[in-house]
Design a protein that fits this description.
Order of helices and strands: EEHHEHHHEEEHEHEH
Largest sheet: 4 strands, antiparallel
Protein name: Nitroreductase family protein
Distance between the termini: 40 Å
Shape: globular
InterPro entries: Nitroreductase (IPR029479), Nitroreductase-like (IPR000415), Nitroreductase/BluB (IPR050627)
Pfam families: Nitroreductase
CATH class: Alpha Beta
Keywords: Flavoprotein, FMN, Oxidoreductase
Strand order of the largest sheet: 3-4-8-7
Strand content: 15-25%
Organism: Algoriphagus formosus
CATH architecture: 3-Layer(aba) Sandwich
Number of strands: 8
CATH topology: NADH Oxidase
Number of domains: 1
Number of helices: 8
Structural class: alpha+beta
Bound molecules: 3-iodo-tyrosine
């Protein structure tokens, strides 16, 4: 590997994989077709998934860019049924209050086509839960480490995570019970980590139906200059 010191810091030669235009077009189309088959799934099969798949998916999320390369994320991987049960009970408690009194009528009406409610059986049925924590700052021993663009960085990592779950052939739902500080307690996370997103991961239940909803067309999302 070719190395060079630039402005006092070590650099490695970047090996760029370039494709002919035709292949470039084909690759972008194939990736879009693959990603466009992703659907949010709320009904899971309880079948197990090889743990190494989950580890590879988390490694993929960890390839995301981050502010000053601080990688301000922690991924908790849960398969212990007792912990899943605790998470379900706490999440449903919050969700029940949200649906009964915290969410506006407009919000609940916007969710009707998606068929959501306070019950979250997938938190126990899915073989794995991934809880993503954002690190507001880092800790090296007793020393606080400054982190930057934490929400953006962790959001991008979650995008990578969701794409990796789908690409591997598994399904998920981006679940954000609100408030979700119960996750810090159950998972015993330090105070510089805040829960960001909860993703059940597994196979879909057989004969699952998904809402008949559509994605915006290119003309609706692209403005060219
Ligand atoms: N967190 C709740 C409500 C919810 C909110 C939005 I915005 C959604 O897109 C879906 C659900 C729940 O998980 O049911």
């Amino acid at each position: 590997m070719e190395k060079k010191i630039i402005k006092g810091f070590p650099h490695l030669k970047f090996e760029h994989q370039e494709y002919a235009e035709e292949e470039l077009i084909q690759r972008s189309d194939e990736f879009y077709q693959m990603m466009n088959r992703r659907r949010t799934i709320r009904e899971f099969d309880d079948r197990d998934v090889p743990r190494e798949v989950l580890e590879k998916i988390i490694l993929t999320a960890g390839t995301a860019p981050s502010g000053a390369h601080k990688q301000p994320w922690t991924f908790c991987l849960i398969s212990d049924p007792k912990i899943k049960q605790k998470i379900r009970e706490a999440a449903e408690e919050e969700e029940r209050i949200s649906y009964e009194s915290r969410m506006t009528e407009t919000w609940k009406s916007d969710l009707k086509p998606l068929g959501t409610d306070w019950e979250k059986p997938f938190l126990e049925i899915a073989p794995y839960l991934i809880v993503v924590f954002k690190q507001s700052y880092g800790m090296e021993g007793d020393e606080k480490i400054q982190h930057y663009y934490v929400n953006e960085s962790v959001g991008i990592a979650c995008g990578f995570l969701i794409a990796a779950i789908h690409q591997a052939g598994l399904v998920t739902v981006t679940h954000t019970p609100s408030p979700m500080n119960f996750l810090s307690e159950i998972l015993n996370r330090p105070k510089h980590e805040k829960p960001y997103l909860l993703l059940p991961v597994g196979y879909p239940k057989k004969e699952t139906f998904v809402p008949d909803i559509h994605r915006k067309k290119l003309e609706e999302i692209l403005i060219s200059y």
